[in-house]
């Protein structure tokens, strides 16, 4: 168990390190000069040189990378050009907002999509299931920015029930959550349906049914018990992906999270901020992945972490 | 097969199963569901794709012709079926021309990602060993990357030209094809004909290219329609965020992001282009889903 944990943590940190390094190189490879973005188009050559020197952009790339690595291990990722504050701090201030949004979206998605998936699995090959099936396809076919604007117009402008943007009250959480949840419900409920349908068709369920096990136990204990791992994995992976910033939805609703931060950082070519955002989100995603794996033995006692076949 | 020929025709055979029972059986219902999906999907897709393909032929105003006296006209007024935007440009014409850009990018991206995915996936599945290790690691690494963020990063840094956007979408999508092809090839390479071909002295590359890949190609290519739907969505999201093809190209994402500022007074500027995207993506998804249902059943019967 401990060896397994250490091994996984090591792999995860390696992934994070490679991601951050890739981003570092990509940024430097690309055309465009952050000094121009910072000092404005009217800056003189001397001013630009001064800005470059101030940010250490005049050094050779390898030296910049070396400094960056040193910063990485001291937890100081430099000062954000546009916020004039430590980049890591700027990102960490935004993180709770993204976390709140992602958590509420995944909760809503789970609460809706699991019963919906079970409902569809029980009615395989009926007209109702086909209808639900087409609806879920429609759900995953709507561009989230468009759904967001539509919901916003309907419930914040025409019928002003919820605030249109930002996160001043808890009501502000409702519309972005629904926007994200529509897509997630569509994807996850189809997945739940597939898992449950294959379990319903399995011989062990017929045996249990013939022995008089109640339909409820069959569904929620037997079939769901055996679908728990894939369903939980799907939910967890989706959650991890959301932590990387629900970029589009955050932009539409002016949500003060990491997603809208990265868009701004890219526009202003704020190198330290880009790197800090990528570092924090990649770390979190790896952490969530690890937690998902650690939860497997709880969902299925047959799983032994670190043994062949499960690692 | 020969035994069925000796039986009398179904109508003459006494049977407790009535035609009505057959029509209600799960297999028939499934077939009907798949067919319905295919028809609805084809209808939605054609409804969007035909006008887009004919955009140059249809009697439309120029997509970029501004007329400030005709700003934000509501739909269905003379000459403007979808109304006009904030600069007096015909919205329908813009949506159709934007669709040409979106569809071109989507199709190109799917072709590129399909090619990369099939080649790498087949190589990984067929050769195994270190090739498989590398490809599988690449697939895993991409899973843990913040995808949209990386796409935005690359587009923001290398400029939003059509080749860059196409390439970026293809890179985002190849893992799906590769994973599927790899699993199909893993099954395929154990079949007797592969061993036979090797005994006959065929080179492994030849076996892979001329025999194994053609055998899995049909199944692997089914996923392409689903990828096309994703590619269109991804492109529109990128251009909504300002990382799409630049002016003068009208793109669906940018038409919507432009219209967002006028949403309270001019609902059509966001709603109609959005409905266009939804219709196309639903159509393509339904087609893909229906085809997949069908091939799955055929495989079971075989």
Automatic annotation (TrEMBL), chain A:
It is a multi-pass membrane protein. One of its GO terms (molecular function) is dipeptide transmembrane transporter activity. Keywords: Cell membrane, Membrane, Transmembrane, Transmembrane helix, Transport. It comes from Arthrobacter mobilis. This is ABC transporter permease. Residues 95-292 form the ABC transmembrane type-1 domain. The chain crosses the membrane at residues 12-30, 97-121, 142-162, 168-188, 239-258, 278-299. Belongs to the binding-protein-dependent transport system permease family. One of its GO terms (cellular component) is plasma membrane. It is found in: Cell membrane. SUPFAM superfamilies: MetI-like.
UniProtKB/TrEMBL annotation, chain B:
It comes from the Bacteria. It holds the Pfam family BPD_transp_1. One of its GO terms (cellular component) is plasma membrane. It is found in: Cell membrane. The keyword RNA-binding does not apply. The chain crosses the membrane at residues 38-58, 101-127, 147-172, 267-288. Gene3D superfamilies: MetI-like. Keywords: Cell membrane, Membrane, Transmembrane, Transmembrane helix, Transport. Belongs to the binding-protein-dependent transport system permease family. This is ABC transporter permease.
């Amino acid at each position: 168990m401990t060896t397994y944990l250490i091994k996984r943590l090591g792999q995860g940190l390696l992934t994070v390190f490679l991601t951050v390094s890739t981003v570092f190189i990509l940024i430097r490879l690309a055309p465009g000069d952050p000094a121009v973005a910072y000092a404005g188009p009217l800056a003189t050559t001397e001013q630009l040189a001064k800005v470059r020197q101030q940010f250490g952009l005049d050094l050779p790339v390898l030296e910049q990378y070396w400094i960056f690595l040193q910063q990485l291990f001291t937890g100081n990722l430099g000062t954000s050009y546009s916020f004039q504050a430590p980049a890591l701090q700027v990102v960490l201030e935004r993180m709770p907002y993204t976390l709140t949004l992602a958590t509420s979206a995944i909760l809503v998605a789970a609460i809706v999509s699991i019963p919906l998936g079970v409902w569809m699995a029980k009615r395989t090959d009926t007209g109702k299931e086909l209808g639900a099936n087409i609806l879920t396809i429609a759900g995953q076919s709507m561009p989230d920015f468009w759904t967001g604007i539509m919901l916003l117009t309907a419930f914040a402008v025409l019928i002003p029930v919820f605030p249109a943007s930002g996160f001043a009250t808890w009501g502000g959480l409702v519309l972005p959550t629904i926007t994200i949840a529509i897509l997630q419900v569509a994807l996850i409920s189809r997945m739940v349906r597939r898992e449950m349908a294959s379990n319903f068709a399995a011989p062990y369920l017929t045996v249990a049914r013939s022995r008089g096990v109640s339909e409820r136990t069959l569904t929620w204990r037997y079939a769901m018990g055996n679908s728990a791992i894939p369903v939980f994995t799907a939910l967890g992976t989706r959650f991890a992906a959301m932590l990387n910033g629900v970029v589009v939805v955050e932009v539409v609703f002016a949500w003060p999270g990491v997603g809208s931060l990265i868009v701004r950082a890219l526009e202003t070519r704020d190198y330290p901020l880009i790197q800090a955002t990528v570092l924090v989100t990649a770390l979190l995603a790896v952490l969530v992945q690890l937690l998902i794996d650690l939860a497997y033995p709880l969902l299925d006692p047959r799983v032994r972490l670190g043994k062949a076949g499960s690692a | 097969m020969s035994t069925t020929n000796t039986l009398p025709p179904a109508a003459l055979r006494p049977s407790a199963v009535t035609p009505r029972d057959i029509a209600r059986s799960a297999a028939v219902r499934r077939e009907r569901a798949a067919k319905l999906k295919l028809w609805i999907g084809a209808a939605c897709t054609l409804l969007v794709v035909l006008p887009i393909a004919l955009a140059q032929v249809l009697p439309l105003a120029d997509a970029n012709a501004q007329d400030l006296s005709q700003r934000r006209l509501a739909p269905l007024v003379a000459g403007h079926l979808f109304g006009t935007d904030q600069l007096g440009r015909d919205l329908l014409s813009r949506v159709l021309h934007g669709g040409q850009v979106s569809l071109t990018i989507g199709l190109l991206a799917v072709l590129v990602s399909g090619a990369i995915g099939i080649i790498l996936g087949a190589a990984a599945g067929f050769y195994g060993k270190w090739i498989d290790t590398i490809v599988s690691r690449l697939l895993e690494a991409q899973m843990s990357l913040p995808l949209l963020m990386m796409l935005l990063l690359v587009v923001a840094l290398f400029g939003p030209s059509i080749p860059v956007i196409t390439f970026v979408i293809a890179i985002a999508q190849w893992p799906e094809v590769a994973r599927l092809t790899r699993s199909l090839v893993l099954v395929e390479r154990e079949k007797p004909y592969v061993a036979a071909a090797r005994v006959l002295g065929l080179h492994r590359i030849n076996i892979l290219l001329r025999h194994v890949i053609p055998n899995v190609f049909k199944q692997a290519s089914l996923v392409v329609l689903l990828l096309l739907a994703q590619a269109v969505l991804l492109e529109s999201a990128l251009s909504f965020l300002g990382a799409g093809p630049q002016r003068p190209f009208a793109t669906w994402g940018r038409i919507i992001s432009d219209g967002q500022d006028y949403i309270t007074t001019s609902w059509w500027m966001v709603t109609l282009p959005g409905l266009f995207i939804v219709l196309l993506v639903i159509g393509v998804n339904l087609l893909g889903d229906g085809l997949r249902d069908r091939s799955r059943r055929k495989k079971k019967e075989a």
